[in-house]
Amino acid sequence: MKQNVKVGLVQMSCTASKEENLAKAMVKVKEAAAKGAQIVCLQELFTSLYFCDVEDYDNFLLAECIPGPSTDALTKLAGELGVVIIASLFEKRTEGLYHNTTAVIDADGSYLGKYRKMHIPDDPGYYEKFYFTPGDMGYKVFKTKFATIGVLICWDQWYPEASRITALMGAEILFYPTAIGWAHTQDNATNTEQYNAWQTIQRSHAVANGVHVVSVNRVGNEAGMKFWGGSFVSNPFGSILYQASHDEEEVIVQELDMSKSDRYRTHWPFLRDRRIDSYAPITKRYIDEN
Q: Which of 102, 168, 171, 206 could be joined to 213 by an S-S link, Cβ 3.0–4.6 Å?
């Protein structure tokens, strides 16, 4: 039987100082480890404010190489604590080429690799296409000391294809570092509807694929946006094991029963009954009439 895994979620607010944010995140990783966490996930772009609310060339100065300064600090920390760290960073690949990227560091401090965000939004307050080139590494899984994990990033959350492929590659847990919020001008009914849709689509990925889902969002008010927190953990049948507040910083540690995937996949055999011979049309943008 597979061993249970304790996952840590760091839900925090950020400032304009990269140094302060990195130091704060490292303190919170230590807090999670002290609570027994074995895998700790940080939120999307945790070393800065969410800068994609505007199109500003100066923000490219926030980017760094991966591996680079932030991963150097985190690999040392991971090795000292014996924990896996999932770190979402603004990657400078080369001059003029940037990605929204998550690095994965194993519990011995070794750098396992990175995943580059595949789906890039462009909406009011989320002008990510100005900054990020879509990922070209495909979907990724990482064989860590404690589990084989898949990492997807924020806007990837809304695409069942991404979670399906990552699960089919062997991911036992799907992690979603996230930065999403409500505009200050929105009413409570709209806010509630948006949060519920966000959580529901991710819980559906857990159900469809029979894997735990861990989603980590930021909190705080930034540039007309209230980041809604609400980080959560879902079991492989979509049940919420923990949900964080919408306002407060939290360091959450949740134990996952890794035997649940086999149980749910056996009793609800969605993978068995997939009709892979019929799915070719999914690669089309839209299925027009002949």
A: 206
Q: What is the pTM of this model?
A: 0.97
246 DSSP assignment: S
> How far is CA 147 from its chain centroid?
16
Asked if residues 90 and 97 have their Cβ atoms less than 8 Å apart, the reply is no
User: Both tokens of residue 119?
Assistant: 């789906």
CA distances from 82 to 32, 59, 78, 85, 276 (A): 12, 34, 6, 10, 40
Q: How far is Cα 231 from Cα 10, in angstroms, rounded to an integer? A: 9
pLDDT tens, position by position, 215-274: 999 999 998 899 999 999 999 999 999 999 999 999 999 999 999 999 999 999 999 999
* Amino acid at position 123, single letter: D
* Mean pLDDT computed over every residue of the chain: 97
Reference 199, options 229, 219, 161; nearest CA is 229
CA dihedral over 146, 246, 62, 136, signed as positive or negative: positive
* Residues known to be catalytic: 44, 117, 154
- Per DSSP, 123 falls in state B
Q: Distance of alpha carbon 8 from its chain centroid, rounded?
A: 12
Distance separating alpha carbons of residues 165 and 171, to the nearest angstrom? 9
Question: Whose CA is closest to 59, among 49, 74, 68?
Answer: 49
Alpha helices in 13-171 (DSSP H): 18-34, 69-81, 160-168
- CA-CA distance, 196 to 83, in Å (whole number)? 31
Contact 224, 52 (CB under 8 A): no
- How many angstroms separate the CA atoms of 12 and 20, rounded? 12
